[in-house]
Write a structure and sequence with these properties.
Layout (H helix, E strand, L loop, with lengths): L1 H42 L3 E8 L17 H7 L3 E3 L9 H10 L3 H4 L15 H7 L3 E7 L21 E5 L9 E4 L6 E2 L4 H16 L6 E10 L8 H4 L18 H31 L6 E7 L20 H4 L3 E4 L10 E2 L5 H11 L14 H5 L9 E5 L12 E5 L3 E6 L4 E5 L17 H17 L7 H7 L32
Parallel strand pairs: 1-7, 1-8, 2-10, 3-4, 3-7
Antiparallel strand pairs: 2-9, 4-5, 5-6, 8-9, 11-12, 12-13, 13-14
Helix pairs in contact: 2-8, 3-10, 6-8
Length: 506
Amino acid sequence: MIQTRTQSMKIKLIISFLCLASVCLVSCKTEKKQVEEINTTETKKPNIVYILTDQWRSSALGYAGNPDVKTPNLDAFAKESVNFTNAVSVTPVCTPHRAALITGKFPTTTGMFLNDLYLPSEELTMAEIFKEAGYNTAYWGKWHLDGHGRSNYIPRERRQGFDYWKGLECSHNYNKMPYYDNDDSKMKHWEEYSPFAIVKDANTYLTQHANDEKPFLAFIAIATPHFPHQSAPKEFKDMYPPESLTLNPNVSKNYEVSARNELQGYYAHCTATDEAIGNVLNKLKELNLMENTIVVFSADHGEMMGAHGIKPFTKQMGWDESIKVPFLISYPDLGNNKGKVVNAPINTPDILPSLLGLSNISIPETIEGENLSQLIKNPDSETDRAALVMNVAPFTGNYIDPAFRAIRTKQYTYLKTEHGDVSLFDNLSDPYQMNNLYNAPNIADIQQELDVKLNEALEKIGDEFKSREYYLDKWKYDINNSRHAIDYWSWEKGEGRIQSPKPIKE
């Protein structure tokens, strides 16, 4: 009897011990799971939403002080982000800017200094770097880096690391914009004004991926406000009677009428595109994604619009109307930096390394741009730096213009052409760049300093600033004699030829 009781007690003790051990084990697992969840939250990298527009000059925004254009959504976003007031396009035209943006390298290094070239697959690109870091990647809209004509299908292996794809090489038919849907090689068309249609699809993607374990890189390339300007929706054009529009004092008399007519459609595109961008920003807020997302709004280049006697539609010039672009950036834990201004220029090759810096991703040694993430996190309006801007071989309507190299600081523009002409502008006292100070005695020291900075910038990237013919010959580019550009139109007849900085293996 005693023995039986003893055995019973032992059994109860064993059961009690096992229960306690089980509770402890469950508790430990629960605690471990909670720690893992916390660590996952802490270590998940920020999403990236990059909104790139086409030909939107920095002055054509309400928050930039424009008295005419209506951009309420971007004006509000400027108060919620860091504003780089002197952002510049390294080469103010489509393909060179886009190539520099996604590689972080200068056009003289990659050879991507003309429109309609093919960016070699050997180049390491934005999407490839973020994919390697665990990101989903998606792209919408105008691409202009494929060099296989402007309407051909771009297969997955030529999308430079972007997986989700609803894009096209190049089109400015905004009311019947063609595109290709991922791996479907049949051309489709957006069913409404393309900025609205593209954003709707992008918002669907954001909704579907909002709670993914993996972060995403969503690149939204909207082709407006690039011409044709009169194709903007009528309701937006009606907001801008041409006779009511303000012209800058540097717009030539002979372009006043055409500039006002073009500005009507240009501003209409701006306002419509602002509405589309507002839809993206509102969706990010609705999905509670702003707390862990870097959002950028920018453009690939500006637009002369009659300034300095240069006809509307023109870019590729060294004037601010052409090179200066908007650049707003918000990021997680922005806090008290909302609405702050940075006057130091950010240049196109600086953007990729800065995004990598903000995302705590190692920056490849091949990238030439500077990581400005600390300046973005600690915005200082007094900081200054020099941004190198260039046009290696002007083409199409700019073919008669000389190649140039220039330095843009927060105050000065210093530009040299291949023919030896020099311009120096104090952009604070002369914001419309109407008074060339080159060789003015009272600015001799500053001129010397800027000349040194320009030479240092060129030396850093190994650019000897030779003639356009030198670079065209170096990269073996064949420029069409009648249109003075890479021949992209022959692809429509089945006679196109790929031109690229590296030989293409088909």
